[in-house]
């Protein structure tokens, strides 16, 4: 090992880094590495906005690597990665440290005897690196087999083999990998772990995919909308709530109960809390202008605020698992999220929403077993099915008005997220869908 990348994810969902030679790692862990807080108000094109709490050239933070999560990056020989914790120079936690926010939310749940297991599904599309004109900006699918077809595995078998090998050597446990719907698109699923670990793993998986792609002369994009006329990339989150149960170990609250689809009352309340806050959560989980080109009905993106058992058109899909494994496998899949999101921030907000559901003993509405887009407006209204925000400004308005998320995340987070979102709305104001896709394509 020669060097260590200290990484964190900014409000725009871009992974930033400072790196240190391995000989300086102990010093970095003790004293930190300097980094300006202004990166929290960087936009996706690296221009800078400002908010009430963050902005300007003054001040400094210290990045401290979490050595418990130090991992070798098998796809980048000689390199390792450690997620950074961000502190002010006086040792206080930076209010925009999303990893610290997520840790705090897991501790709040733990105070009530609860834990959460989480995992991200990561979708990406692979392009021939230089495109037809050699400019590197165009997207040219690296494979053209049918959606979900074995042909796509055969076309890029060596690439996928090396990716799986690199992930394994990096310490990531892959559950499955498969071709997806859009041209050149794949998805990898990893096993569930604690929420902070799940977000750390999401960052590590994406950087591994990026590195292996480059080694094969390809370019990987995680953008919510790679091409304006094609299906975009999601980053679905799987969540399950677990109750401490003494010597017998944790018990999954999403199974074994008398509630909908076998949920316990607590599992239902947790799910209902997330469902209620989805419009506001989108400002974090579908955070780019391009996100709303992806979040459209009848595209399996979860464009309607409803839930259903194994319903891939519902924003909240309840996954039971096969008969006999429900006690371990039952979980919620939040489908309306994409990879422009900061994984730490989206999990922190989701856990806060679920915790509020637990505290208020919320109940779910009736499950939806059809594509909501196929129902009339009157039928949707009668069944309580609302359309999720159709634009980033709508999501930001819902986010700023949500008192539960404001209380959980803090004023600095609310203000900074809203400022960055408005900056990117202004940046792409008047752009066509094709221009939005092009501007976002290689940023995430």
Topology record:
Elements: E1 3-9, E2 15-21, H1 25-31, E3 33-35, E4 61-65, E5 71-72, E6 79-88, H2 98-111, E7 114-128, H3 150-155, H4 157-170, E8 174-179, E9 185-190, H5 195-215, E10 218-221, E11 237-243, E12 251-252, H6 265-285, H7 291-294, E13 304-309, E14 314-319, H8 326-329, E15 331-334, H9 343-360, H10 377-382, E16 386-387, H11 392-401, H12 403-409, H13 411-427, H14 433-440
Parallel strand pairs: 1-6, 13-14
Antiparallel strand pairs: 1-2, 3-4, 4-6, 5-6, 7-9, 7-10, 7-11, 8-9, 11-12, 11-15, 13-16, 14-15
Helix pairs in contact: 2-9, 4-5, 5-9, 6-9, 6-11, 9-12, 11-13, 12-13
Write a brief caption for the model.
The chain is about 35% helix and about 20% strand.
Descriptive account of the structure:
Residues 98-444 form the GS catalytic domain. There is one protein chain. It contains 14 helices and 16 strands. A hairpin with a 6-residue loop joins strand 5 and strand 6. Helix 2 packs parallel to helix 9 (343-360). The protein has 2 domains: 3-104, Roll (Ubiquitin-like (UB roll)), CATH 3.10.20.70; 105-440, 2-Layer Sandwich (Creatine Kinase, Chain A, domain 2), CATH 3.30.590. The chain is an alpha+beta fold. 35% of the residues lie in helices and 21% in strands. The model has no long low-confidence stretch (mean pLDDT 95).
Mean pLDDT rating = 95
* CATH superfamily grouping of the largest domain: Glutamine synthetase/guanido kinase, catalytic domain
What fold name goes in the CATH topology slot of the largest domain? Creatine Kinase, Chain A, domain 2
User: What Rg, in angstroms, do the CA atoms define?
Assistant: 21 Å
CATH class of the largest domain: Alpha Beta
Q: Biggest β-sheet: count, sense, barrel?
A: 10 strands, mixed
> Could you say how many structural domains there are in total?
2
Write down the overall geometry.
globular
Strand content: 15-25%
Helical percentage = 25-40%
Instruction: Encode the helix/strand succession as letters.
Output: EEHEEEEHEHHEEHEEEHHEEHEHHEHHHH
Q: How many beta-strand segments?
A: 16
Structural class: alpha+beta
Family: Belongs to the glutamine synthetase family.
Keywords: ATP-binding, Ligase, Nucleotide-binding
GO molecular function: ATP binding; glutamine synthetase activity
Domain GS catalytic: 98-444
């Amino acid at each position: 090992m020669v060097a260590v990348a200290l990484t964190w994810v900014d409000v725009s969902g871009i992974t930033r880094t400072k790196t240190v030679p391995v000989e300086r790692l102990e010093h970095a862990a003790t004293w930190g590495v300097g980094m300006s807080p202004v990166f929290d108000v960087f936009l996706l094109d690296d221009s800078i906005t400002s908010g009430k709490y963050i902005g300007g050239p003054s001040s400094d933070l210290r990045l401290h690597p979490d050595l418990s999560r130090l991992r070798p990056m098998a796809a980048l020989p000689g390199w390792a990665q450690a997620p950074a914790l961000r502190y002010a120079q006086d040792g206080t936690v930076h209010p925009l440290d999303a990893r610290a926010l997520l840790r705090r939310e897991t501790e709040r749940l733990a105070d009530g005897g609860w834990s959460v297991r989480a995992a991200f599904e990561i979708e990406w599309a692979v392009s021939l690196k230089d495109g037809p004109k050699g400019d590197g900006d165009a997207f040219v699918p690296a494979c053209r087999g049918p959606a979900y077809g074995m042909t796509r595995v055969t076309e890029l078998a060596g690439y996928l083999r090396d990716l799986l090998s690199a992930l394994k050597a990096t310490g990531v446990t892959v559950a499955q990998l498969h071709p997806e719907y859009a041209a050149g698109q794949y998805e990898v699923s990893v096993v569930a772990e604690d929420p902070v670990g799940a977000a750390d793993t999401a960052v590590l998986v994406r950087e591994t995919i990026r590195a292996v792609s480059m080694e094969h002369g390809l370019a990987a994009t995680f953008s919510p909308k790679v091409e304006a006329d094609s299906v975009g990339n999601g980053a679905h989150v799987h969540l399950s709530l677990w109750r401490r149960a003494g010597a017998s170990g944790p018990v999954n609250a999403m199974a074994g109960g008398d509630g909908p689809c076998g949920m316990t009352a607590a599992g239902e309340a947790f799910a209902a809390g997330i469902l209620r806050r989805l419009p506001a959560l989108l400002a974090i989980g579908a955070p780019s202008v391009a996100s709303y080109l992806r979040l459209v009905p009848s595209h399996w993106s979860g464009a309607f605020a409803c839930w259903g058992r194994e319903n891939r058109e519902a924003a909240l899909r309840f996954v039971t698992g096969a008969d006999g494994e429900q006690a371990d496998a039952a979980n919620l899949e939040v489908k309306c999220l994409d990879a422009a999101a900061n994984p730490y921030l989206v999990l922190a907000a989701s856990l806060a929403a679920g915790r509020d559901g637990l505290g208020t003993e919320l109940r779910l509405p009736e499950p939806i077993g059809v594509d909501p887009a196929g129902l009339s407006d009157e039928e949707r209204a009668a069944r309580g099915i609302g359309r999720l925000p159709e634009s980033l400004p709508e999501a930001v308005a819902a986010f700023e008005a949500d008192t539960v998320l404001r209380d959980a995340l803090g004023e600095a987070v609310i203000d900074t997220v809203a400022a960055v979102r408005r900056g990117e709305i202004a940046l792409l104001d008047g752009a066509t869908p094709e221009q939005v896709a092009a501007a976002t394509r290689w940023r995430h």
